[in-house]
Design brief:
heterodimer, A: mainly beta, seven-stranded mixed sheet, 11 strands, B: 110 residues, mainly beta, six-stranded mixed sheet, three-stranded antiparallel sheet, 0% helix
């Protein structure tokens, strides 16, 4: 454990509001990822970044946005355009894209 | 498109019995396969990857390209093995991003 932190652990949002989930890593990893985890489904990739100032859409990027201004940080914004945002969000990092991914503890977002 | 299938959502076995968690994949090239595990109240973490050919916590997994499978096995289950297990695939065609199975919840009964 350690190395990747996500905050907050629980987050509540009203419909129509944007919200930003934090992900920080001190592992000096180049690659970072955001996943969404829903019951009965595997992890689905939202966005990933292989290097600072660059990121790519994953399978379910609609309604989400990211930035990668620093190597250590990869925040995810869930916008009001996301139709069904209530979910568990996991952040991960890896030394390079082909390597083992290390996961944060997750943030559970609930839209009220 | 690449796909990973874990046919069992739930698997329940008695302590000391053998365990096999199934994972099938669809990919025509040479994938890299992983098993990740999530114990209760812990983070998702790597259990093993086929390229390393290691045995972790008594678990092994063999890549069978003919059957496109990567089943996870352990000869004698322990109660601490109870967890959620995910199989994942990495391939050049998907820019090496992990493709995940839906997961299997393993319950070891005392």
């Amino acid at each position: 454990d350690g190395g990747i932190t996500q905050s907050p652990k629980y987050l509540f949002r009203k419909e129509g509001q944007n919200v930003t989930l934090s992900c920080e890593q001190n592992l000096n990893h180049d690659a970072m990822y955001w996943y969404r985890q829903d019951p009965g489904q595997g992890l689905r990739l939202i966005y990933y970044s292989q290097i600072v100032n660059d990121f790519q859409k994953g399978d379910i990027a609609e309604g989400y946005s990211v930035s990668r201004e620093k190597k250590e940080s990869f925040p995810l914004t869930v916008t009001s355009a996301q139709k069904n945002p209530t979910a568990f969000y996991l952040c991960a990092s890896s030394p390079i894209a082909t390597d083992t991914q290390y996961f944060g503890p997750g943030t559970r977002l609930t839209v009220l | 498109a690449q796909r990973v299938t874990q046919p069992e959502k739930l698997l329940s076995v008695f302590k000391g019995a053998p365990v096999e968690l199934k994972c099938n994949y669809s990919y025509s090239g040479s994938p890299e396969l992983f098993w990740y595990v999530q114990y209760s109240r812990q983070r998702l973490q790597l259990l093993l990857r086929h390229i390393s050919r290691e045995s972790i916590k008594g678990f092994t997994a063999d890549l069978n390209k003919g059957e496109t499978s990567f089943h996870l096995k352990k000869p004698f289950a322990q109660e601490e093995d109870s967890a959620m297990y995910y199989c994942a695939l990495s391939a050049m065609d998907s820019n090496y991003q992990l493709i995940w199975g839906a997961g299997t919840k393993l319950i070891i009964k005392p």
